[in-house]
Amino acid sequence: MAEIVLTNTGRDLFLEESPEFRGPGAVRAVDAVLGLLALRGADRGSGVPEPTPGLVKRLLVEDLPAFVWAAPEELAVYPAVLRALAGRFDGERRTRIEGVIGEAVADFERAMGDPGNLTWPRWYAQLLRADGTDPGDPEAVRAWLARLDGPPVPDGVRRADLVGRTAIADLVLTEVLTRAYVRDAEQPPAAGPLLSDHDVAQGIGRVAQALLDRWTAAGLAEGLAGEYAHLAPGPDDLPHLVLADALLDEHLDYYGDASVPLPPPEREAEEAVTDVERDADVLAAAVDELADEGTYGGEAAHLLYTLYQRGCSAESVARRAAEFEDWTVDPALEDAPVRVPPPASPGYTTPTASELARLLGTPGLTDTDRARLDRPAHGLAAVVDRLAATGLVFRRGDAFGLTPGGCAAVRYLLAVRRVAVPDAEETAEWDADTLVAATAGWPPAVAGRVLGEWLHARGHAAEAWSGLLAALGKVNAGTSEAAGTRGLLHVLDLSAAPTGALRDALANPAVGVRAADVLRDRGEPVDPDRVPAAARALHVLDGLPGKKGPLESRRGAFDAAASRWPGGSAALVAAMCAADPHEAERVLKPLGISLP
């Protein structure tokens, strides 16, 4: 079948007119380039597919890295084939195509060598060549496959990565083949069809295998789809990928972008040695069993995600149940750490009313309130206990969290869906701006830990402190996230900052007042003119109670600050709006204060 699919691509004509493309590697390049251009709809009226700038770029950076394997020394042949095709044109058309080729070559070479772009056929094509197997001999290829004990994976690549990339590549190729067949059927080209009815009748999947055999190694894709399918696991062989998708959905619900990083676990959790694929399957099975059980069974994936989102720190069953029941929880306590008690009775007991008041930040809770939360808390504890039966989640009293193995398994599940999950070593290497941009969206306790580790890795040097404090004033400046970024000051111990770094920060609107206060506490002289009005206005703004507490007390706090501000309330409001219009509107408008 590999000899008859994808005809009328002009390959023989091109090879006749371009004798420089000889040898198996060059012929494979010609076959792949012409075949993919034709499948993507290139005009074949001249006898060969005519490249366009758009087709050239897609071919080099998308299609070839998905469907073709070539040794590093063979890579140059592929853009050379495209240049030879462009050479059939004159004038601006040729210039534009050659320009796109030149611009895309570096990306093409990078994509072809990127382990993240490997599929099972491309990976095995690389391995068998390294072992000296002739990629053009199907019997030799099958004999090589027969000698493998199991599916090896490249360093730094997970089986799930190969599974996912292969599934996407297979889907894309079958769609391209289907569209090409339909296009030729609806508007028969003068050059003849690319696929015959006989070919398609055998199945588009088999046609795709035949093409991959031509573009990677003879008989390879067919073998991996048949007798040696165990060497190329698919999505059905990794059932935990369903849970990975659910965790990705959770991340997108929170942040809208997989590249937004989650906080790293503590180093102790990172050091867990475990079979993460096995553990991921165990977690996935538990989540699947819970899906339709009770009120909170469907929240199991959400619980796992939020535990990782906390830096793998423990959470409170009662607090989480209260949130599910739409009870008011102090925003400052939503992500607060929870003390993990020593092991005790496995039965769950809802915390006392006074402890609930502390956990939720809601004074005055009574035993009646506790009774109302008792049933939801027990229902959630039952879900947690089912997850804990895996050994990857724990519950002690009201506290629950991920074990080191569970933390590693959830991190793996997020990573296979390309969610950014740096470890502590990675975050320690970030520059100050990257660090501040990430930690501003993390729970305060976790942010404080990571910022402290970052400074520790640099010996708490003045340069590191200066860079970090400067980043607090520029990252997210002018946006609605600026106030949250300044909030990192509350988790930084400025008393440990070197004097020089604090003096550098006096003019920083986000840091100036706090830096001046620390210097004065040390007995250091501070020129008040070094601290700008914007810094003083932001200090007052960030110190107001925002939307928490009775309106009268919040307005009273503003009036008290305005009475001490030069020029009074109007001048203070103007200074606040100039320094951070987003936060000024959020805080001041509910107080009935008119903004300029």
Strand neighbour order, sheet with most strands: 1-3-2
Biggest sheet overview: 3 strands, antiparallel
Uncertain spans: none
Total of DSSP H or I helical runs spanning 4+ residues:
30
Determine the structural class based on helices, strands and strand pairing. Answer: mainly alpha
Shape: globular
The percentage of residues in β strands lies in under 5%
Residue-averaged pLDDT: 94
N-end to C-end Cα span: 75 Å
Please give the radius of gyration in angstroms: 31 Å
Helix content: 55-70%
Q: How many β-strands, per DSSP? A: 3
Explain how this protein is built:
With 596 residues, this protein is mainly α. 58% of the residues lie in helices and 2% in strands. The chain is built from 30 helices and three strands. It has a three-stranded antiparallel beta sheet with strand order 1-3-2. Strand 2 (393-396) and strand 3 (399-402) form a beta hairpin. The longest helix has 28 residues, at 159-186. The radius of gyration is 31 Å and the shape is globular. The termini are far apart.
